[in-house]
Each structure stands twice: as structure tokens, then as C-alpha cells.
Amino acid sequence: MLQKSKKKEPSASSSLTAGLFQTPFYPLSYIKVLIQIGHEPLPPFKSRSIFGREQFFYPNNFSYMRYVYSVEGIAGLYRGLGMKIISQSVATYVYDSVNVMLDESVDQEQSVEKKDKNEDKIAVFIKQTSKELTARCWGVIFSHPFHVMGLRCMAQFIGGETAYSSWNPFHNIAEIYRGEGIQGFFSGLIPRILFEASTIALTSSLAYLIKNYVYEDKEIDALIDLFSSLIANSVTYPLSLVSSISCISGSSIMAARPPRMALYASWIDVFKHLYDTNQLKRGSSSFFRVYQPIESPMGGFSLGLGTVRRLD
User: Fold this and answer.
1) Where does the chain have alpha helices with state H?
2) Which among 268, 273, 263 is positioned nearest to 294, based on CA atoms?
3) DSSP assignment letter at 44
4) What is the pTM assigned to this prediction?
5) Looking at 16-25, 29-38, 59-68, 165-174, which range is the least confident one?
6) Domain 19-111+123-309 classification at class level
7) In the prediction, which pLDDT does 120 show?
8) Domain boundaries defined on the chain
9) Average pLDDT of the chain?
10) According to DSSP H, which parts of 160-248 are helical?
11) What does the alpha-carbon distance between residue 261 and residue 127 come to, in Å, rounded to a whole number?
């Protein structure tokens, strides 16, 4: 009984705090989404890479942020903030709730069967990783409809629309259900779950291998975790990109229609198109964003300010 009383119970206040924590960094997340869906309003410029080679680059994310500010002011940098707060709060609450349930299940098993003090490290690693995967994926599933609403609010910047509200989820629910039915609330869910699951699995596995077989120094465990997370996120980033595009695809806003975006049948089509056009890393970098022509659904290449037709 004493052990159970010490457990952290999920609360609405702590979950809301986690959601509000997104506010200071929200403009950067917003700009990243606009880049992910291929909106490049600023022209590329010629410069030299770190290796001295002349290349064309897109302006960095802070220049992009200044552009959005010049168009819509400070409020424009927070399009979709309300949906982001709700999404993160719901995800945190579900994540904490599932963790508590899983802990209680483990306690019941241990009360029947005495735990081996010398339990194999790999078995402990598998249990901890499985627990994290389960809790995180359930959080993603329950919060995903609000995640979709938030991304579509952001994408409205491209067409200057107001179909989706940044603060009224009931208006957004009606808008999505009217246009796409129930499935619209879960657009992009599968690649998002794959992204979360593969990132957790890769991060945990890499950290486990380094800590146990390469450098067994507890003092740098935090650095190892950070390094593992950076590597994993870099590898799994294409799934995050595919999810963002899939969440917006299928809606009635300008950003989801030709010539801004191709019409995709599924998230697999999104992945194939990005792979064929060498765009799977689009939006992954905030600086030194190498210019790559984005193929337009109309048969040319989008430069952000227009379309350049092929000469052949």
C-alpha cells in the first residue's frame, strides 16, 4: 500500500502544464510544418557550403519566421496554438494514465512471483522499452485528432483561410467530419505511430548498447541518451515528415490541393513521392537549408514563388 501511494497519479493540471510548455517554442514548430509541406515563399540565394562549394540555399527558419511576422504580425506566429496545447495535454494525460496502469500490473505480478534481484539486463531493457512504447503510442492515438486540427490550422497560412479554428475544437470537429468523416480525424496516424515507436526503440537500443558495451560510465549517461536520441530522430525523420503531410492531405484547404500539394491516396503514396523526388529530409534542418526544386503536381518545379516548367 505504501508503494502505491508514492506513485505519480495523472492529473489534468500537470497535463495542461505540459501543453502550455509548448508555447515559447511554438513559432519554430509552426515554421517547420510550413517547410515540411513544401511552402517556400522566400527565394533561394547563392552561398558556399561548409566545404566551400557554391550552392543555392533557402533562408533559415528565423528568416522565415520574420516573413510570417511581416505578413500576419505576432498573432500569425501562433496559428493553431490552442490545438497544439490540447493535443499535448491529452497525450501527456493518457501517457501518465497508461504508465500507472502498467505499473499496477507489474506490482500484481510481483506479489505472486518474487522478483529475481539478478534479473537479466536485457529482460529489464525489453520491459522498460515495451512500457514506454505502449504508453507513448496510446497517447498518440488519443491526441491525434487534435494534432490533425493543429497542423491544418498552420497550413491555412498558405491560402489565408479560416476553415479551422486555433481555439475552438468543436468547430474543427464539424469541419473535418463534414468533409472527410471519421477517418479524417486519423489522417497520418499510422506513420506518426511508426515514427514514435521506431524512435523510442532505436533510441533505447542505441543507448543500451553504448552504456553496456562501449562506455560504462554512469556520469555521462545523460549525454549518451541525448546522442542516441539525436541519431534516432535523424534516422526516423522521414516518417514524421510523411505524417505531417498526410494529416493535411485530403482537406479542403489550399495547402492540400494542387498545385500546392499532390492528391495522395494514402500515406504510402506520400512516402513514395517524397522518395522519388529526394525530399525525405525536407524540413529537417533549420540552417544551411540546401535548395532542392520541389516537383509540382502540375508538371514542373515549384520555387515557392511560382512554377518553373521543364525544358525537356
Assistant:
1) 2-5, 12-20, 26-36, 61-76, 81-112, 121-159, 169-180, 189-209, 221-248, 267-276
2) 273
3) P
4) 0.88
5) 16-25
6) mainly alpha
7) 80
8) 19-111+123-309
9) 87
10) 169-180, 189-209, 221-248
11) 42
Instruction: Please give the helix or strand (H or E) that residue 163 lies within, else none.
Output: none
Selection from 3, 9, 13 nearest residue 96 by Cα:
9
Average pLDDT over every residue of 127-143? 96
pLDDT tens profile 80-91: 999 999 999 999
Looking at residue 293, what DSSP letter applies? Answer: P
CA 272 and chain centroid, separation? 19
**Angle, helices 221-248/121-159, rounded to nearest 10 degrees:** 40
Please report, as a single letter, which amino acid is at residue 308: V
Q: 234-292 pLDDT, tens per residue?
A: 999 999 999 999 999 999 999 999 999 999 999 999 999 999 999 999 999 998 898 98
CA distance readout (Å), 236 to 128, 129, 202: 21, 17, 9
pLDDT (tens digit, 9 = 90+) per residue, 188-215? 999 999 999 999 999 999 999 998 888 8
Buried b / exposed e across 183-211, counting CB within 10 Å, b at 16+? ebbbbbbbbbbbbbbebbbbbbebbbebb
Compute the distance between CA of residue 299 and CA of residue 244 in angstroms, rounded to an integer.
23
CA distance 112 to 90: 34
Q: What value does the mean pLDDT take over residues 93-121?
A: 71
User: What is the enclosing helix (H) or strand (E) of 51?
Assistant: none
Compute the distance between CA of residue 143 and CA of residue 261 in angstroms, rounded to an integer: 25
Strands 289-290 and 54-58, how do they pair?
Answer: antiparallel
CA–CA separation, 132 vs 18, rounded Å? Answer: 18
pLDDT in tens, 23-60: 999 999 999 999 999 999 999 999 887 777 888 999 99
